[in-house]
Specification:
Blueprint (H helix, E strand, L loop, with lengths): L7 H22 L8 E2 L7 H9 L9 H24 L4 E2 L3 E6 L5 E7 L1 E5 L2 E9 L2 H6 L3 H4 L3 H16 L4 E7 L4 E7 L2 H20 L9 H4 L5 H4 L1 H4 L9 H30 L5 E4 L3 E4 L15 H4 L19
Parallel strand pairs: 1-4, 6-7
Antiparallel strand pairs: 2-5, 3-4, 5-6, 7-8, 9-10
Helix pairs in contact: 1-3, 2-7, 6-7
The chain binds iron/sulfur cluster.
Length: about 325
Amino acid sequence: MPYAYATYEDAASLADHIVSRRNDVLSKKISRYPKRAFTCSDISECDRYMIHSVLDWDKRELHDVGLQAIFDAGNKEEENVKARLGYELGLEFVETQAPFEIKNNKGEVIASGKIDGKILWNGKAVPVEIKSMNENSFNMINSLDDFKKKPLYRRYLRQMQLYLYGNNQEAGLFIISNFRTEKLILVTLDYGECEYIISRLERLWEMKKAGQYPEPEYRPELCDRCPFSSLCLADVENKPADFINNEALEEMLERREQLIPSKKEYEDLDEQIKSTFKEIPHAFVGTRFEIINKQFVKKSYDTKAMPDEIKKPYERETAYWRTTIKKIGD
Ligand code: SF4
């Protein structure tokens, strides 16, 4: 028997049903987990974040359904990559999601983590970590140096280094996927980097045990998306807010909101294009674009690695304001 014809209302109510049920399903997956030690995949550059991440895991701001959908897609893609390499190339994945721990010299577990798995090759098991990303980021990442460009990707590097260190492995592979194909980036164990990460974790671990929080240091690329920013800014947020009625200002804020996706797209494209021209001094693209690259040498000092007694005499306090703009209604 043929099905009855659907009306406009049927199609519209189906769309509403899908959106609302999908949001319900995603919402149920959003939760916090207790943490007793640092997580190797979540090593931020902010010391204060690291302390919050363990002592205040239960106050972490929950992410939204959009981000949950991205996490779900990433997990699914990990399985897809394993299937593509497994069924199509005959490679065997072993020790998937194997846990590992980093201990301090007192034998305390200060960090724990997991690696996506290992691929059997030449009778040995090569560690691999699968990361899925959007097309712009996928195109931007072509070497380990490219991982250093964004806080999130720098976390990936720290995770892999800790894994290699904690498991006595000389090298591993990042398998990056754009949800269609893969790119492989070889990672070798960097002892200097590992020692720096571990000594930092040891220092933070002692602070965590003493319940000490480092002073917040505002860095937009970290703080604007930080799930602990409301704790960090508690002093400011507890003061009564001003209410301002100003239509022009409200319109500017609306327009700013609309431009956020364009800004992100611009930044991703800019990075992708510039990485294409790395080390090419001069080029023309078509008849309308000229690309000029100049090399500069800049001197920098790793102040974080300096002992406190050397830094102390040069310490200065500077007051500054941090402005965070949050959209609170549609
Ligand atoms: S808001 Fe900024 S300073 Fe505070 S914990 Fe987060 S990243 Fe660190």
